[in-house]
Amino acid sequence: MKRLVLMAAAATSVLGSAGAVRAEDGYDLWLRYRPVEAAQAQGYRALATELVAEGGSPTLAVARAELARGLSGLLGAEPPATPTVSRDGAIVLGTPASSKAVAGLKLPLERLGPDGYVIRSVTLGGRRATVIAANSDVGVLYGTFDLLRRIQTRRPLADLDVAEAPKVTLRVLNHWDNLDRSVERGYSGQSIWDWWKLPDAIDARYVDYARANASLGINGTVLNNVNAKADSLTAPYIAKAAAVADVLRPYGIKVYLSARFSAPIDIGGLKTSDPLDPAVRAWWKAKADEIYRAIPDFGGFLVKANSEGQPGPQDYGRTHADGANMLGEAVAPHGGVVMWRAFVYSHEQPEDRIKQAYNEFVPLDGKFRDNVIVQVKNGPLDFQPREPFHPLFGATPKTPLMMEFQITKEYLGFATHLVYQGPLYEETLQADTWRKGRGATVAKVVDGSVYGHKLTGMAGVANVGSDRNWSGSHFDQANWYAFGRLAWDPHGSSRAIAEEWARLTFSNDPAFVRPVVDMMVASRETMVNYMTPLGLHHIMGRSHHYGPGPWVAGGERADWTSVYYHRASPEGIGFDRMATGSNAVAQYAPQAGRALAADEKNLLWFHRVDWDHKVASGRTLWDELVVRYSQGVQEVAAMRRTWAAMAAHVDPQRHADVAAYLAIQEKEAQWWRDACIAYFQQFSKRPMPAGYAPPPHPVSYYEALNFPYAPGI
Ligand code: GCU
After folding, report:
1. 382 is an active site residue
2. Domain at 8-164: CATH architecture
3. Would the CB of 577 count as within 6 Å of ligand 1?
4. Could you say which of 56, 68, 208, 585 is the most buried, measured as most Cβ atoms within 10 Å of its Cβ?
5. 409 lines ligand 1 (CB under 6 A)
6. Total-model pTM
């Protein structure tokens, strides 16, 4: 109680001081539209004296409404809407079909596709105007958000000549949301989808969710967990999904569903779900028809099959292609697609787990229907702090592959660690696959340019939940943002995206932007240092994946343990994936494999080395491990200092929220360091390097910690 009163007092005094930062709770994301400083607002107002928006589609209506909302927030007054340009400084939006003014301008829209747009400073009837034009209404909406972003980040609006088009077709979020509103690997409250109350009650949040996604160009969302229940495909749940689809449609966002492969048995009364069985095929066709009756623009299915206990075509001796093609055939008449996941591995296989997806899918290249796209995680293991890119990228010339990134931070400290994932995404996208020679980056595989694929896509496992700030922490909003911007342009720069986000979300003041962007960009490597330096991987707590767990061994399957991956012994540490070991390196083009294996960042991913192995710094591996772990902790301490110095630039509520989480992060970074050093020292039997404090507890102390209520499972 006392604390509440104190906070209220602080808020009042801040509000009382002129120009000070208002308390914010993060709900507005990067669409805050707070007033532009008076000196600059005048200039922007001159260019936004009226809104000219002909055409009455729902999408144009939301574009117009967003512009009105944004401009009134940013510039203090909503410009009047007029049917034709009557004053200087009009903003004109529309397509050649919806707007005579736009049609008359004959803008170069041909090459921009359905989603691209043009923003141009023009003269119309002798008056200055800024036109936002596109081939489709949703392109106009994307252009609208772009224009608003320019004002939000204080870029000039005069002399604009912008032409933008997404490089990837399917830009989708994957919600790992269950029908009871729990979220697998979710750290931001419950699912935003209130299935129980749907379809009758529509949470206002669905609209703000749609606005946020549309502002990034995200055009699809898979509503339910890949570990799917067949119930999602029953009539009541189709009606619920249809209600969500109705809300998202004006924003250009299609709804998809994860399909459980055994649904014909689970809810269809069939005895089999064999993809070659005619009754099974007929069942899926009828099911697809039923869904499309309710959701005419339904996107299609996402499928996790024969992976981690999920049913799939291999249960009947069929291949992944057989399964995917059956579903592809069912949605094809309606223009739907199937996103078939390549995250497959089996503990019955003695083969190195990270090799299994490649082994499974490369022989199937060319066997998939043209409305099937294979969805591949960024790395071959599972969203670790660092993994080399997945060797499937570039290895299937005849099969389009879409990227799957994880936005929710299952392995990266949940919502309480400040880890900006832009650099992780960029590192993967910029990696050179060396398929078809130098420069065939993962980004170029994903955008279809390496092999000329038209069907392209990028998926992000969502970090959106019912928390007031959507993502569990203010800085985790940046991961949603970065995913969306990179799905639009996988060649983008994660630093530029961080800067844009920081300006939109907090402040344009360079005294804020510079240090905070530096902190964000460095935060991923900091996290690697205190969790899994030098190529270590999969050494987290069992099952909930919270905190360190290098000792995890035994249990139902070896490839869910830590010892399987780090293989520490008195002789050394690391997984030999070279020719002398599992030879996973051979799944890459030779140049790519050589580059990855030679990079010290991946040392223990590819090599098993002894504790005295000399690394680039001249130190022994053991000393280097201690140094990196310790450095990670020091870097978090530095992040806290950076943030503390930002108090004047951020409203007190968000400043305090972030500061509190950074304190947790420092404590947990220290815990990771101490627990891992204590554990590995049992094998290295080497002393701590001079000047480095030993862990305060024996390894048994860390092993005994347990967290039955960790979130996300
Ligand atoms: C990880 C995660 C699971 C998830 C799986 C997947 O293993 O821990 O919760 O189901 O990935 O991507 O299917």
Report:
1. yes
2. 2-Layer Sandwich (3.30)
3. no
4. 585
5. no
6. 0.97
